[in-house]
Specification:
heterodimer; A: 113 residues; alpha+beta; five-stranded antiparallel sheet; 27% strand; disordered C terminus; B: 554 residues; globular
């Protein structure tokens, strides 16, 4: 598989990649879906493998700049249909803090609420 | 404490209105993120891992009860019910929505607070001794000078785009540095010269981050009236010669090191000669204008404070006595004490306080003092003016709030950055490591046996958790996408400033707390007496026995 420069800050390469960003309204992590929208759920992310696909996805994701910001791609592995980020950073970003919040929190599960 | 004049108030009100318009334009798509980012950063609004983060300035760490209640209100109304006190005596909220931030800034302005210059390459919040104004060993209250620096540096037109961020700390206690002034871009120490004249020792080029450096003395004695002109001279030299081609070499510490302190001093003095008798020269009247806000409150005349504080440590209530011994310090006013509220609890990230706790602390500051609260750079809080006779009642109140842990300056009084759980820059988590250490060393008898030792944890090389200056420092690193941790020993932020040295290879999270325990067991075994502090034993023994203790079985 081709190496994709600029992905995931030099972390190990996975079998696939996804486009991620932050929701402008809240800063919540979001993932670009294969339908061309955004989801809070990493498992809904559209997967791609090549630099050409990367460029196309990033360009499409960048069209609504008011909604999503700080767009970049991350490396993931896919096993039994489950998307798993390779880095601890992206795993925590996808799942939320590993420590209890002071108010354990309906808010976090509602993500962009 | 200082009260805004009309000019101060107009600035923060106007800034809140400006930011409202900027946010509206960003959300409508009128301006891009690239255009918006510098605007939000100038108002302390960062983008973190899961959400925006708003950093609010607490000048020299001093809050009124009303201002603390406003933090509780912000936590409750706009965030998730808590705030996080930082190592720069500020407070951060981890979950604000973009559309709410202008309202937060307006609410802050209503209690004379703001988030201006809490980010960006400008002069940041000036920090100071958390015991300022009440410490027994203080030569002079540093807060009037901190306030003068705040007024001089806020919106300073020349220093809005420095090569890099710039941090100043001031201490008024020559004998003990509780403000880590040697690890700031500029450190100011109030001193007396041989003739008994009051002035400042000026240090520059200190800092942590990826290149930790102890500040060097630029001027051994500066008369008080020249403080601002001298700071301006240093900033001008830095602004002119500091590197802008590489952000990792842009801090003043790099400039001072590359230029050499003698040459740097010459440049500063040359600049200063041109301006020292100009508009920035402080007059007694100007100093008095600011100092009047920091005059001591109306203390009652109470005698024999020393005896009653000493007696309190021997209370039959052992828990209370231990708390007094560890978390209460002598006050310059007879009959009063300085009380440290521990924000370190095994189940709570260091520095986090809930909205209800903040409201309760505000109430306590009024019932047991004059409505003042101070944030420490070690992420605890201080009630500075508690009657010694009222310590038992306050202790009982703090127990109900989970803020009476007697661990000030003990192993579990951990400084800890937000780490990878929140921070976009971090490589590894730090809060869970702090929690594990707190659990492992929960036994108060063991804590007291170990005595004074500082543990500081950073989730990356940027060192927000001050790992370089912990007696025991822990640095989170990234090893091929996995979290790993390095142990450093021998750091000290005080008058005998030193930078910790990496003990050996990095280790996985599961081994970090065992390693800390091995270090402490080694110390207990090898110390000359219970009076020999960890840092003193380390300096005597060097790293070898500790390295052996940690790595022998690995």
């Amino acid at each position: 598989m081709a190496q994709i420069p600029g992905t995931d800050m030099g972390k190990p390469r996975g079998t696939h990649h996804v486009v991620t960003a932050s929701l402008t309204k809240t800063g919540t992590p979001i993932y670009f879906t294969s339908q061309g929208g955004w989801s809070f759920d990493l498992q809904q992310a559209g997967l791609f493998e090549t630099p050409a696909e990367r460029d196309q996805k990033v360009e499409a994701a960048s069209r609504d700049e008011a909604e999503a910001c700080d767009i970049y791609t991350i490396s993931v592995s896919v096993e039994n249909g489950v998307i798993d980020p390779l880095s601890a950073r992206e795993e925590i970003r996808a799942k939320g803090p590993t420590v209890a919040l002071r108010r354990p929190d309906a808010g976090f599960s509602q993500k962009g609420a | 404490m200082y009260q805004y004049d009309d000019y101060d108030q107009a600035i923060v009100d106007e800034r809140a209105r400006q930011f409202k318009g900027q946010v509206e334009r960003r959300m409508s798509g009128e301006i891009t993120e690239l255009e918006f980012k510098p605007l939000r950063l100038q108002n302390g609004l960062y983008m973190q891992l899961h959400a925006y983060m708003l950093r609010i300035a607490i000048p020299y760490g001093l809050l009124s009860a009303q201002q603390m209640r406003m933090q509780a209100h912000i936590a409750r109304k706009y965030d998730r019910g808590y705030g996080h006190f930082t190592t720069r005596q500020n407070i951060q909220f981890n979950w604000p929505k973009l559309e709410d931030v202008p309202s937060i800034l307006a609410d802050l302005a209503s209690v004379q607070m703001q988030a201006i210059q809490t980010s960006g390459n400008c002069i940041r919040n000036t920090t100071s001794d958390p015991f300022a104004g009440v410490a027994k060993d203080e030569l002079e209250d540093p807060r009037p000078y901190c306030e003068l620096i705040r007024q001089w540096s806020t919106f300073h037109p020349e220093f809005a785009y420095l090569p890099r961020k710039f941090k100043i700390a001031v201490t008024g206690t020559p004998g003990e540095d509780r403000a880590a002034v040697r690890f700031h871009d500029i450190g100011v120490r109030i001193i007396e010269n041989a003739q008994g004249e009051r002035g400042f020792e000026i240090l520059a080029g200190g800092g942590l981050g990826r290149t930790p450096v102890i500040a060097k003395v630029v001027r051994e004695f500066l008369p008080y009236e020249h403080l601002l002109s001298y700071l301006e001279s240093i900033l001008r030299v830095y602004n002119r010669y500091g590197r802008r081609d590489n952000k990792y070499k842009a801090r003043i510490k790099i400039l001072v090191n590359e230029t050499g302190i003698e040459k740097f001093r010459e440049q500063v003095e040359e600049e200063w000669e041109l301006m020292k008798d100009g508009a920035l020269k402080l007059t007694r009247t100007e100093l008095a204008r600011v100092a009047k806000y920091f005059v001591p409150p109306s203390y009652e005349n109470i005698s024999s404070s020393e005896n009653s504080l000493a007696a309190a440590t021997l209370s039959p209530n052992r828990e209370f006595g231990r708390w007094v011994a560890n978390n209460v310090r002598g006050h310059r006013q007879a009959g009063y004490s300085i009380v440290v509220l521990s924000l370190k609890h095994p189940k709570i990230p260091p520095g986090d306080v809930s909205d209800t706790q903040m409201d309760a602390i505000a109430d306590l500051s009024e019932r047991y003092g004059f409505g003042r609260i101070v944030v420490t750079h070690t992420q605890d809080l201080v009630l500075p003016d508690v009657k010694t006779s009222e310590l038992p009642a306050l202790f009982a109140e703090l127990q109900k709030l989970d803020m009476a842990t007697p661990n000030f300056e003990r192993v579990t009084d951990i400084i800890c950055c937000p780490g990878l759980d929140y921070c976009a820059l971090a490589n590894a988590r730090s809060i869970p490591v702090a929690a594990e250490i707190s659990k492992r060393f929960e036994d108060i008898d063991y804590l007291d046996d170990i005595g004074e030792v500082s543990v500081k944890i950073s989730g990356c090389i940027n060192a927000c958790g001050h790992h370089h200056i912990g007696n025991i420092g822990i640095l989170g690193i990234d090893k091929s996408g996995e979290e790993a941790y390095q142990l450093l020993l021998g750091g000290d932020s005080g008058n005998e400033a030193s930078i910790g040295v990496i003990l050996g290879p990095a280790m996985p999270e599961a081994k970090v707390v065992d390693a800390v325990e091995s270090v402490l067991r080694c110390y207990l075994k090898l110390r000359e007496s219970a009076e020999e502090r960890f840092i003193d034993a380390y300096r005597r023994l060097g790293p070898s026995p500790f390295k052996e203790a940690v790595y022998a079985n690995n």
